[in-house]
Amino acid sequence: MTEGNFVDYVKIHVSSGKGGKGSTHFHREKYITKGGPDGGDGGRGGHVILRGDKNLWTLVSFKFKRHFKAEHGLHGSKSRSTGADGQDAIIPVPLGTVVIDTQTGERIAEITTEEDVIVAPGGMGGRGNWHFKTSTNQAPRYAQPGIDGIERDITLELKVLADVGLVGFPNAGKSTLLAALTSAKPKIADYPFTTLKPNLGIVQNRDFTSFVMADIPGIIEGAAEGKGLGHYFLRHIERNSVLLYVIPADADDISEQFTILNKELTRYNPELLDKNFIIGISKVDLLDEELYTAIESECKGAFKDIPVVLFSSVSQQGLTQLKDRLWELLNA
After folding, report:
1. Helix, strand or coil for residue 255?
2. pTM passes above 0.70
3. CATH number, domain at 149?
4. What is the domain extent for residue 260?
5. For residue 285, which phi and psi values (nearest 5 degrees)?
6. For residue 71, what pLDDT is reported?
7. φ/ψ bin of 304: left (φ > 0), alpha (ψ from -120 to 50), beta (otherwise)
8. Which parts of the chain sit beneath pLDDT 50?
9. What is the pLDDT of residue 189?
10. What's the structural domain count of the chain?
11. Mean pLDDT for the chain overall
12. Given phi > 0 = left and psi -120 to 50 = alpha, else beta, which region is 272?
């Protein structure tokens, strides 16, 4: 998945179909001159439906099409025949899509399973004249018109659904870790915000098991208030089952970095602290044996009951242990 084709926010316009009008037909056949009303009902207008699709990862298809319209219902006809319903407009979206009414800001739905959500119901068809026959009105020349469909603007916002989300400052080694554990090919360079879009990869584990890992754009202080990439990355973290804090071994203060990361997540959404998490100390290939032992001791004292794994994406050191600990948390 590349930066160019990852789209996670889009506005679209949807229109449901109008219901068909009821018929004012009267029954006519040989030897029956006054057969009475037999006008059928109009068909329902087509719905606009969002359908969760596990095979989609982005909203990139909406780059090329932003307007969706369902068909109108057909009119009723003679012999109480109901008009056909209008064809629904079915729009596939990736799992993790939040649907918002653009005008009001109301959250319409969150699509997290392969489900159908009607975002614009079609108009009901009108009733035919046979419904209106009474003892005092044997030949009603009235039938209902169809009800208009609905037009609305909606916003689709994708929150990446992944088992493990990587959390850390820019250049903490998250993209390198993702590349080492999966077949993903994220852009990697030594400058802030190399990762501008979430990257996903599948981590192959023991016994043919696997899990999805997401590299989220790096955090900076004040991100919860919109600094840097701000909410752009934080909304994706909400959907990760387990968080992996990635802190480089050459950080000035490992404990302080963790505190700042934790604070930003808390300020954005305190519920993020309820997620299971693990701390990974990256780039340990840069350390000699003495410094490695010192950092290991420092982490044990600073984090106590929090699982900590020291690893190197370059030398592969500690990666198997890291995968094992993540798998344990995912199945806790």
Report:
1. helix
2. no
3. 2.70.210.12
4. 162-330
5. -65, -15
6. 97
7. left
8. 1-5, 186, 188-195, 221-231
9. 40
10. 2
11. 83
12. alpha
